Amino acid sequence: MAAPVAVTGSTASPAAATNPVQAPSPAPTPSSTPSPTPTPTSEAQPSASANINLGNAPLLGVNLSGCEFAADGALCPTPAIVDAYFDKGFRAFRIPFRGAQADNAAVVAKIKAAADAATTRGAYVILDRHDYGATFDPDLASWWAKFITAFPDAERVMIDTMNEPKTGAPYELDPATGKSYATEVNAGISAFQKAGFRHKLLIEWRGSSGMSRFDKKEAATKACESPACSFDRAGGLKDPLGLTMISGHRYPDADGSGTSATCVANSTGAQLVSNTDEAAAARGLKLWVGEFAFGNHAGVSATCAALGAEFIARMRAMPRTYAGVSWWGGGPHWKEDYLYKIEPAKGTFSSAASSIYLLAITGR
Q1: Alpha-carbon distance values, 85 to 58, 237, 350, 351 (Å)
Q2: Which of 40, 192, 297, 336 could be bridged to 283 by S-S, CB 3.0 to 4.6 A?
Q3: Comparing C-alpha atoms, which of 277, 281, 284 is closest to residue 325?
Q4: Segment 174-185, tens digit of pLDDT
């Protein structure tokens, strides 16, 4: 379910490229049968999310798009935009940006100003590297360790390590390299924290971070094809500080791509996300839904409204699992006819009455 983003052609930083494969030392002959997938238990897998407490969870937040649309940062959200959304009821702000923008001090200053505006009012910020690059690993951890120095508030500033990653180690352990998706993620967490940082980390996965494919429940005799299996065979998602959670995306159209305003009619809001939230709950992991949408400022169909209400009810019924959601479609720079545009006509958001959709996604 690739995020429906119209962006300019900025270039991702080297950390978003496929990592070179190290020349391996002599590897053992691979077994034809993958190692068994253990049954998740809290005793066997201490929760990587044990110390994540965002207060009145689940939080209802929003994506404030803009930075990722223009390389020079001309469309980055401003403090005034953050204030307007806070006043409408949002309590978390996911700010998508491009990795290449980290080299532009003026753009970083704009991102920081928006983040500071949010945290000053007691909201949370998720810095989202919106590059569709590599899954989290030590190289990406090194990149974040440099960038995050401009954002020292580890209590309220969180890191979405890579939006909808497309490259990285396979889910099944590669006997030639000794690496898998899970071992690389765990190594990245370790490297980031050894550098002295304590920001909460959000981990996505290949396949557009789709919440219908986090756990394929692979048999012990099958190779891993999903993040859940990869973590299980690596001994779990490992964060000794308990500051890491998973982050998935979900759109309610037929193929989950977020490209149609027509919501599926043969499902419920709970069914749309149950593959991931049940797997997270079984493993004691926190879950942040990085992108979800089901309407716009002009209205929402009865089918979509029901799915959205059911999803919100699902989150509220599982506060030990759900940390929150950042609804897609926020910010003033979307085309007026964009199917998930939260704002009404440009320049009227602050003064306009809240739409039915806005009331729904802020929990009212």
Answers
A1: 17, 34, 8, 11
A2: 40
A3: 277
A4: 999 999 999 999
